[in-house]
């Protein structure tokens, strides 16, 4: 299946998402083959949106004007994806930052796939989490699996940390999956600098958060996965608290978008050949 990024109104414009202009232009070209007569400007304006909605109605799709995996499949004449398993992305295919991360993640592919089997998720999902956490090592100091991140000073102390930062001078996030120094013994004394060990440990953490949330809620499918990914960032207790308060699962996560962003990144990796 030839994946494409999700497209919607206002994509492709210079003031919104110019990197998606090529994808919008491709969409316009394909629709024109069906007789829609769109200008090939790479701008997803009202005219393109109306054409998409008309196409969706004519093909029995939800006419929301958004070109996601289902609409792309019909446009391209491909097998319809399982909505419960669909990984969409709003990132352009040629996003330079993600292409650099893809090159890094590919070097750890065997470990990522092993970790995905361990926690029962698709490898692309682990790619998305690692991308959000460390840009697959490119955001760490030093870059790579031996680096650390999150150097925000903490006012509390611990028996193993008397100062505002870990005693070795690094950040609290350890390695590719950014295992937290305070929360995990592994990050203090384990082999966190080893890429395989770090990835597999992170996958164990994700598996644990998914399991806790599954036992205590009725969430299933992508909703459960989103909650589990959010719990990887803020802890399953905070996800359960958010749900009890009627809030989104990302409410207590960093920037309140952690799971959405990680899955958006996962969709991009899926677009580039990761299942």
TL;DR of this structure?
48% of the residues lie in helices and 2% in strands.
Report on this structure.
There is one protein chain. The protein has 275 residues and is mostly helical. The chain folds into two domains: 68 residues, Muramoyl-pentapeptide Carboxypeptidase, domain 1 (Orthogonal Bundle), CATH 1.10.101; 176 residues, Lysozyme (Orthogonal Bundle), CATH 1.10.530.10. 48% of the residues lie in helices and 2% in strands. It is built from eleven helices and three strands, in the order ααααααβββααααα. A three-stranded antiparallel β-sheet has the order 1-2-3. The chain is elongated and about 70 Å long. The N and C termini lie close together (11 Å).
As residue ranges, the low-confidence spans are none
The percent of residues in helical segments reads 40-55%
Q: What structural category arises from helix and sheet content?
A: mainly alpha
The first-to-last residue Cα distance is: 11 Å
What percentage of amino acids are in beta strands?
Answer: under 5%
The chain-level mean pLDDT equals 95
How do the SSEs run, as a string of H and E?
A: HHHHHHEEEHHHHH
- Give the biggest beta sheet: 3 strands, antiparallel
Number of domains: 2
Classify the fold: give the CATH topology of the largest domain. Lysozyme
CATH architectural name of the largest domain:
Orthogonal Bundle
**Main β-sheet, spatial strand arrangement:** 1-2-3
Strand elements, count: 3
Number of helices: 11
What spatial form do the alpha-carbon principal axes imply? elongated
CATH top level class name of the largest domain: Mainly Alpha
* Gyration radius from CA atoms, angstroms: 21 Å
